Amino acid sequence: MDSPADYREMMARAIEDIRAEPVQPYREGAPVRRVIRVRGRTTGRPRRFGINVTQVGGHLYLCSAIRRRDWVRNLIAAGRCTVERDGPDGADTDHASVLIEGAEAAAVLATYLPQAGYQDPELPFAVDAPITDITPHTTTTAVFRLDPARDLNGG
What we know:
Elements: H1 4-20, E1 31-39, E2 46-56, E3 59-64, H2 70-78, E4 80-83, E5 93-100, H3 102-112, H4 131-134, E6 142-148
Antiparallel strand pairs: 1-2, 1-4, 2-3, 3-6, 4-5, 5-6
């Protein structure tokens, strides 16, 4: 990738690809591709990105090898997001995005990473590392649990 414009174009194509696919149902421990919408921390405008969402223990999670990525920083700032076409009728669903660490995050990473299909060069451990090796890194990786939205508007 040669420029930020190239990266934006690649991300836009990835979103188009995900939207063109039939929505895959969640299965325990198996990542599925979704488009996430979050408010930008600086502009306040909606930002979209394609990502794997993994169900572990009945909860939905998003993972990143590092916290410096824009989508991670936006989710931390917003504390909420929308998953496109995720409802039973194909409607978008709202979620609280909760950054987690420790044993819960390590268990999610240990489930997700071997199935992700790639190894992020920023990942500070092997994709097949045991939970005991992953746990110390959960303060620098990013794992978000997507909790059901109650009333995200404060009312």
